[in-house]
Amino acid sequence: MKLRSIELSLPGAAEAATFLTDIWGMAPASVEGATHYLRGSGSFPYLIALAESVDCYVRSTTFVCTADRLEQLKASVSAAGLNAASVVSHDPGGGYGIIVELAEGELLRFLVDAQEVAPIEGADLPVKLTHVVFNSIDAERTGHLVEDALGFRVSDRTKGMVFVRCNDSHHSTAFARAGISSLNHIAFEMEDLDAVMRGIGRLRDQDMAPAWGPGRHGPGANVFAYFIAPFGPVIEFSTAVNKVPDDYPVGAPEDWTWPARRIDQWGISTKDFDGLRAAEEKFRHRRDWEPQSLDVLTEENI
Questions:
Q1: Backbone angles phi, psi at 255, to 5 degrees
Q2: Element counts in the chain: helices (H) and strands (E)
Q3: What is the residue-averaged pLDDT of the chain?
Q4: Distance between alpha carbon 94 and the CA centroid of its chain, in Å?
Q5: Whether residue 37 has pLDDT greater than 70
Q6: Are 110 and 133 part of one and the same domain?
C-alpha cells in the first residue's frame, strides 16, 4: 500500500494552484472543471487536487493498494463498524475501491487499478507525498483504530504525535495530540537535502520564511521546512523518512526528548507556534457525505 494524494476543497483553487506551481515547485497535471490537479516528478498522476468551494475542507486522502489488500480492508473496516462506501474515482488515474470515515471524520480512500504515468524530470519537483498528518482530539484512540481497522502499524509515539505506517516507510500519516480534528500538514518528499534547501530559498525569494525549520525530526529522521501557504494549510518540504523493518520497536514519548529549548535533532530551528496553530485549524473534515453499502459500487459521493 502507498500514500498517493490528498484532495482539498477551498475558495480560490486556481490561485492556490498557481502558488504551488510557480513558487512551491509542482507541475500542473490537469484541470477538470473547477478542480486543479498538480503532480510531482514521480509516477503518480497527481499529488494534490484543489477543488473550488465556498468552504475549506479535506475531501479525502488517497492510498493505492492491491485487490487482495482491498478485500482485507473491506472485512476489517466492516468488523470495526466504521462508515464506508464503495467508490469509483473520477480523478486522474481512475481506479475503484472504498472510502472510509475514521472516528473524527477523516476520510481515507483506498483504490485499486489506479493508473500511473511516466515520471518527469525536475530536480526541484517533489517526488511524492511522504506523509499527511491530521490533528486529533484523541490521537491514541485513532492510532489503535487504524491498526485494527486498516492494518496500519504505529511506529512511534511522542508527546505530540502518534506516527503510523502503511508500508516500510516510517510513517505515511500521523495523528497530532491537538485537541481538535483537522488537517495538521501536508509533506512533499523532495529528491534530496539540496532540493529541500533550494525550496526554502525559492520561498525566501518571495519573502516567505519557514514557520518551522530547517531542521531534522526525530521519528522518521527526515529533514524538514514548514511553511504556511497563502491559501491556508501548512505544507512541508521534506526528505524521505527512514525505512523501518517489520519488527521495528514502537518508540515511546520518553524515547524522543531533546535538551531544553531544542525542537529538533539539530537544535537550530525556530517555530511560529501561533501561526502554525491557526493554519492547522483551517481545513476541517467534511461530515455531510453519505456512507453506503460496500456491496454495491457507487459513484464517488464526496
A1: -80, -10
A2: 5, 17
A3: 94
A4: 19
A5: yes
A6: no
Given a cut of 90, whether residue 297 has pLDDT beyond it is no
Q: 206 and 277 in one domain? A: yes
First-to-final CA distance of the chain: 22
- The CATH number of the domain holding residue 106 is 3.10.180.10
Asked whether residue 158 falls in the same domain as residue 261, the answer is: yes
Cα-Cα-Cα-Cα dihedral sign, residues 176, 182, 185, 187: positive
Cell numbers found for residue 3: 500514500
Q: Which of 116, 150, 182 is the last residue of a domain?
A: 116
Q: Considering the domain boundaries, does residue 123 fall inside one?
A: no
267/269 Cα distance (integer angstroms): 6
- Is 101 contained in some domain? yes
**Taking a C-beta distance cutoff of 8 angstroms, is the pair 219, 256 a contact?**
yes
Range of the domain at 253: 128-282
CB 187 within 8 A of CB 169: no
Kindly state whether residue 112 falls inside one of the protein's structural domains: yes
Tell me how many domains the chain contains.
Answer: 2
2-30 burial string, b = 16+ CB within 10 Å, else e?
ebbbbbbbbebbeebbbbbbebbbbbebe
Give the model's pLDDT for residue 288.
61
The pLDDT of residue 199 is: 98
Residue 292 predicted with pLDDT over 80: no
**302 domain-assigned:** no
Helix orientation angle between 139-150 and 67-80, rounded to the nearest 10 degrees: 130
Query: Domain check: are 66 and 132 in the same one?
Result: no
- Of residues 170, 115, 131, 133, the one with CA closest to residue 5: 131
What pLDDT, in 10s, does the model give residues 73-131? 999 999 999 999 999 999 999 999 999 999 999 999 999 999 999 999 998 999 999 99
Q: What is the mean pLDDT of residues 25-52?
A: 97
User: Do 44 and 99 reside in the same domain of the chain?
Assistant: yes
